[in-house]
Design a protein that fits this description.
196 residues, alpha/beta, Rossmann fold, five-stranded parallel β-sheet, 9 helices, 5 strands, 12% strand
């Protein structure tokens, strides 16, 4: 059995009980998305959080027909990539999977906008920052070629005077965000989520 089937099936069961409205915003990606309490940071917006912890960009592609397309969102926010690079995927692999994800969404929902949050710098995976930044460079260039795609990079905002990740933005594992980290992300993201 697929390691994510249980998570995806749980989303589908929740949707049957209470079908989400169409035309909203879907957040998809790894645990950084799953742990984001989008309802409390964006109470005024219709957001469906479909993050599943430990997932890679390839998983977002695999489940796009089940966790994005049915909601017919006007906007999809994607965060994935640091698990991929940690698992040995190349910078190019991550970018290729993101491209596949956008094509899969636009094949069925050509008007939907997709906002990619760049792979974040973290204390735990600091040794891999060069590969993450390379991946971000490729994905940024790809986003710039399509008006339906946007790219947000938190790299410099998350670094301190020493040009290393700011400790207060991370919980003890050095990977996941604290409330302060999510506040930063939510503040920067809000104008993109509310844009007409």
């Amino acid at each position: 059995m697929d390691r994510w089937e249980k998570d995806i099936a749980a989303f589908e069961a929740a949707d049957k009980m209470s079908p989400p409205q169409k035309g909203g915003i879907v957040f998809v990606g790894s645990s950084t998305i799953r742990r984001w309490d989008t309802a409390s940071y964006f109470p005024d917006l219709k957001i469906i959080n479909r993050g599943f912890g430990g997932s890679d960009m390839v998983d977002a592609v695999r489940y796009v027909d089940r966790i994005v397309i049915p909601y017919e969102p006007r906007l999809v926010v994607v965060y994935s990539g640091d698990n991929d690079i940690s698992a040995g995927w190349t910078s190019e692999d991550v970018a290729i999977q993101f491209e596949r994800f956008t094509r899969a969404v636009h094949a069925k929902l050509p008007q939907t906008r997709i906002l990619l949050i760049a792979v974040k710098p973290s204390l735990l995976r600091w040794t891999q920052i060069d590969r993450m930044r390379m991946s971000n460079t490729i994905m940024r260039a790809y986003c710039e070629r399509d008006d339906r795609l946007a790219f947000i990079d938190f790299d410099t905002l998350m670094l301190g005077w020493d040009e290393k990740p700011r400790r207060e933005l991370f919980v003890e594992d050095g990977l996941h965000l604290t409330a302060q980290g999510y506040q930063l992300w939510s503040t920067v993201l809000r104008p993109w989520l509310t844009a007409p």
